[in-house]
Write a structure and sequence with these properties.
2 domains, seven-stranded antiparallel beta sheet, about 210 residues, three-stranded antiparallel beta sheet
Length: about 210
């Protein structure tokens, strides 16, 4: 048998084995229970109102604004892209405060990086940023999230903004084509970022609803 033909057969066999192995890897892991969460609108809060959101953004979208007892004003915007190809991950990461808020008159002042906020049994990564809006201080927290297997939850305690790490971790956990979602929270009424962050950590316990499927 000529060498090129043997090489072609060998490469073909290697490709089939690789494709089969990848499919088996994902199929085995996809039998596990998947963890989901969604935004729980605080409808009982003072001055609560639904916020209308543009149709092109997300397969599911919800917005709400309300006032806390301390006088602070909160707005939450929740978007979800259904499970599918990698384009949903791209859309989720393009819809970010530093890209969208300047068009509404917000000016970025400080990027505080990523903080981890405990909500129910979740460790949620929020990108913390300070904006100026018409002379008022706005504290913005933005979370990008990908649905994941319940068994892999404890592994996810790092910065979800690094797409390379997210992709590698998803492969190791046998996850693919999972839904993407974002939660953006804008807070007015606090003198310092430390006060705003403390309030966020307290309120997040009531703003998340967990689901297992």
């Amino acid at each position: 048998m000529p060498f090129p033909r043997r090489l072609a057969i060998g490469l073909g066999a290697w490709l089939l084995i690789t494709v089969f192995g990848v499919e088996v890897w994902y199929r085995v892991h996809e039998t596990g229970e998947t963890l989901h969460w969604s935004f729980e609108a605080p409808t009982s809060k003072e001055d609560f109102a639904n916020v209308s959101l543009p149709d092109p953004l997300g397969d599911e979208r919800r917005g709400a604004s309300w006032t806390e007892r301390d006088g602070s004003r909160w707005t939450a915007l929740f978007f979800k892209w259904a499970a599918g190809p990698p384009c949903s991950r791209i859309l989720a990461r393009l819809h970010r405060p530093e890209n969208c808020l300047p068009a509404a008159g917000f000016k970025l002042q400080v990027d505080r990086g990523v903080i981890t906020v405990k909500a129910k049994d979740l460790n949620m990564p929020f990108h913390a940023m300070d904006f100026d809006y018409d002379g008022k201080q706005a504290y913005v927290y933005f979370c990008v999230w990908q649905d994941r297997l319940k068994s892999g939850e404890q592994l996810r305690i790092r910065d979800h903004w690094d797409d390379r790490l997210v992709g590698l971790e998803s492969v190791l956990l046998g996850e693919r084509n999972l839904a993407q979602q974002t939660l953006e929270i804008v807070i007015f009424g606090y003198a310092t970022s430390q006060e705003a962050e403390s309030a966020l950590r307290h309120q997040m316990q009531n703003l998340v609803r967990l689901e297992f499927r």
